[in-house]
Amino acid sequence: MGSLTGDALDFETGLFTDPLGLNIDMQKWLYKKQCEIVRRMSLFRGELPLGHPQFSPESKAALSGTEKPEGLNGLLSADVPDIEYSAEDEAVLETWLCEIVGLSWHPLGSCKMARREKMGVVDASSSVYGTERLKLMDLSIVPGAASGNTMNTACVIGEKAVDMVLHELGVV
């Protein structure tokens, strides 16, 4: 991130940055498990390419189209073998997950209001630590998940922000 407002953003979400790789391993396991569950359901009619990585056509993990595993009766069946993933499939799956996984909820708390030693970015007056005349007054300052609609939280922050700025400027 540069010093000018027109500089390109360099924002890291932190997704899949676990040094042990546990985050990506969990996502790979979840993808595989949901595939195994869905393909055993009586309503299964095949796979749509849109929701899957592009495995090699020779791969055992490649989409089966409208093929349905034999002998299914609507229940999970131990007779249906799990899909076998090769090392190449694992790499394709990991790359695909890194490309498509994102945040689906309203992210908040990326610049939480807390003491610096508690990894806070702004103080109680919404001033950014280490800067002068810079305040954050949006959902990024929320120190934890909101238990309700985030719009309500945003409105309260906005109302408080106006009040704080007016007082600091001596308007009220």
From TrEMBL:
Gene3D superfamilies: FAD/NAD(P)-binding domain, Glucose Oxidase, domain 3. GO terms for molecular function: flavin adenine dinucleotide binding; oxidoreductase activity, acting on CH-OH group of donors. Residues 86-158 form the Glucose-methanol-choline oxidoreductase C-terminal domain. Pfam families: GMC_oxred_C (PF05199). PANTHER family: GLUCOSE-METHANOL-CHOLINE GMC OXIDOREDUCTASE, GLUCOSE-METHANOL-CHOLINE OXIDOREDUCTASE N-TERMINAL DOMAIN-CONTAINING PROTEIN. Belongs to the GMC oxidoreductase family. This is Glucose-methanol-choline oxidoreductase C-terminal domain-containing protein. The lineage of its organism: Eukaryota, Fungi, Dikarya, Ascomycota, Pezizomycotina.
